[in-house]
Amino acid sequence: MFETKIENLVKEKNYIVRHGQTDYNLRGVVQGSGIDAPLNSNGLRQGKAFFDAYKEIPFEKVYYTGLQRTKQSVQGFLNLNIPSESIIEFNEISWGKYEGLPMTHDENEYYLQMLKRWSLGDLDYAIAGGESPNMVVFRLKIGLEKILNQPEKLILICMHGRAMRMLLSILMNYELKFMDEFKHQNLGLYELNMDDSGVFRILKYNSGAHLKGLELI
Prior knowledge:
- The chain is α/β, with parallel strands linked by helices.
- Helix content is 33%, strand content 17%.
- It has helices spanning 23-27, 41-54, 68-73, 75-78, 105-119, 133-148, 161-171, and strands spanning 3-5, 13-18, 61-64, 84-86, 154-159, 189-194, 199-207.
- The chain has a seven-stranded mixed sheet.
- The protein is globular, with a radius of gyration of 17 Å.
- The model is unreliable at 1-10 (pLDDT under 50).
């Protein structure tokens, strides 16, 4: 279990999920912020499974990004007329010229080298035409400030894998170079809770319990 002190954090509990599967995910094609792909049939079923498992949670507000795959993933909660808002600053990282391309052997090697540079602390390094981690964190903090300035304390956020890793690093006060410690999967859930002492804990880490028994096609 991770824990840290979060100064000025007013949210008591956060549920943060990655969006459901798209055809780009299924085919191993890079998406990023420049590809606004919808959920495929698997992703829609993942979203329904998550809704069925958590529909009794009295969320006060639901947040999603400016890309349709996140809104579609939490549509069940929106159908309950829970207040909601798009936070475009939570969009996925831009993968630049690699967006929309299959991950070939050479491109995968380039990607792995980039991750290595990030893990060594070179956080201003960006993929060709894309964003660096520091660029993404800058806008994530703007989006986070929008949420923290609102009164709701029990919230659901649906976002994207790489951006989610960075947001969790911010919330847990991790050095950004360790962001890959936060694993993700389609519709994987992180549940974060702040106790009376002001310590923020991860109660569920990339949980896919709600997806057990779900057959993907």
